[in-house]
Prior knowledge:
The chain is α+β, with helices and mostly antiparallel strands. The chain has twelve helices and four strands.
Amino acid sequence: MGNENLLHKVLKLWFRQKSGDGLEAKLGYRFKDPELLAHALVHRSFLMGKNMPYESNNERLEFLGDSVLNMLTTEYLYKTYPEDPEGELSKRKSAIVSWPACAQSSREWDLSEYIKVGKAENKMTGRGKEAILADAYEAVLGAVYLDGGLEEVRTILNKIHFPRVPEIISGSDFVNHKSALLEFLQGELRTVPEYVLVGEEGPEHDKTFTTEVHVNGKVYAQGSGPNKKSAEQEAARLTLELLRAEAAARTDNPPSEQGETKPTKRAKNRHVGLP
């Protein structure tokens, strides 16, 4: 407990020296307890090699902020798109709360200037990583919620995040490739994709995941990313491109000219599921 209290005091002092009122001015919110905001900016890599409790990183605040962001985004979509069905609202929500969307909003605050990362992470430009920026963004929202309540978070989102919704939901970076692949397979082949985790590399704070997409036993494509979801999205995107090319080839060539592909058997971490 002593180490944790010391860390909080150091963070509070560092934050006030580092930011003055700059970050709070960008947020449009003045913290009653600035330790909360300082805590929201501590990436877990910063604690490596230090005699500090793991809970002193920003992951618990990020967990809280993620939930608050999801709830307020759902409320915003419900009110803004009164005629949209549940499925369409879900697609919009997935884009709005995605890492790219959150990372972009964090850049509006120049949040990378304030995030505390470890030396090794800093050498790898960790401050600018999309995942780190997005997590810190959600952690800041969690800190605002604890310090000022739900209405203060809503005000911030209405100022910085929700005005970008038309751009977010229309951008190609936010296409849900897993949904698109599922719709294509159900319509063309009456089947569903199978996602197989085939690789997990790197240190705990900077992992890279690799996933394959199987369709009727055939391996189509691999995708990699900083988390399982992004790896699956990339694999789904590449698979959909291949399947569309196959469909075009079938249109140009009679079935008798097409060869059969034997199923590939693997025993790996599998799941068949919706996006």
